[in-house]
Amino acid sequence: MMKALPALRTGQPRVEHGYLNPIEGVEIPFGIIEGAKPGPCLLITAGVHGSEYCSIEAAIRMLRMDPGRIKGTLLIFPILNVQGFLKRSIYVMPEDGKNLNRMFPGRPDGTVSEKLAHWLVTSVYPLADAYLDLHGGDLDESLAPFTLFPNGCEKSKALATAFGLPVAVAAGGEGYTINAAYKLGVPSLLPEVSGNGLWSEETVGRMLAGIERVMHHLGIISGPIEPAPQADPAFVTMWVPSAPVSGLWYASKEVSEPVAAGEILGEIRDVFGTALATIRSEKDGFILYRLTSLSVNQGEALIGVGTPLVSEG
């Protein structure tokens, strides 16, 4: 069991698979695919949320990439939250009950998810020239395919355009994988494809086609590649109301539906049907994702409203 990654650049084409033990009690699979010619290092992670299976399956298939096709190196972690994957956990790492994608940049003396985030930020992200953190709609959420990129980073925005999903969200805030990588100067993108933990050849294929377009954009592979369905995505920001109370969630809007400011997005009721909270949209836009579970706990995200990004200048 390795504690540290092997060298990413040896000058020899190779495929190396194995398991890493970066922190005590955590064992994660990895793959390194090195081409014969030098080039960028693309980091691909999946399974930050262990039940987002479309993204995990796409990363697993990337482990089979032929080194003869690429320049540079792919570094792939197909399941970062292994216990979450095995236990079909929603969002959190079972070891500490925390959402890994809220823990960055982490702490070396923290709980398991904080330590894992700290290891990624200090030992993995600095190795990368670009980063894809694959996601895919957890067991309790449906979504329209979109990418998230760190707001204000033009190189990350270019990755979003290259990936080719119809919507790209300019995202900010602390705690996230891509935000932490961006702070280290690594262009980063978080694609979301599928939903409710489902995966199919169509959704995995859509994720893989986006990854290939990014690899082509970075010069890791040459063409021909499947072109994006549109020249540019719709660039938006996302507003996400959280549940003010616990109860039963009844959404009034479905994914991709338009919504006007002030319009009702849904209602939280008690088991007898009494309304506990009515959620109204603060913005005009359209629905990017929604909580699909009947049960909701106070503080959980209910629905994502995409609003067109206002260009400056």
Concise summary:
The chain is α+β, with helices and mostly antiparallel strands. It is built from six helices and 19 strands.
List keywords for this structure.
four-stranded antiparallel beta sheet; 313 residues; 19 strands; single chain; OB fold (Dihydrolipoamide Acetyltransferase, E2P); alpha+beta; Aminopeptidase; 13-stranded mixed beta sheet; 2 domains
Describe this structure in words.
With 313 residues, this protein is of the alpha+beta class. It folds into two domains: 14-234, Zn peptidases (Aminopeptidase), CATH 3.40.630; 240-308, OB fold (Dihydrolipoamide Acetyltransferase, E2P) (Beta Barrel), CATH 2.40.50. It contains six helices and 19 strands. The chain has helices at residues 53-62, 82-86, 112-124, 154-163, 177-183, 201-218, and strands at residues 14-23, 26-34, 37-45, 71-77, 92-93, 98-99, 130-133, 141-143, 146-150, 167-171, 188-192, 234-239, 247-251, 258-259, 264-269, 275-280, 285-291, 295-296, 303-308. Strands 1, 2, 3, 4, 7, 8, 9, 10, 11, 12, 14, 17 and 19 form a 13-stranded mixed beta sheet that branches. It is globular. The model has no long low-confidence stretch (mean pLDDT 96).
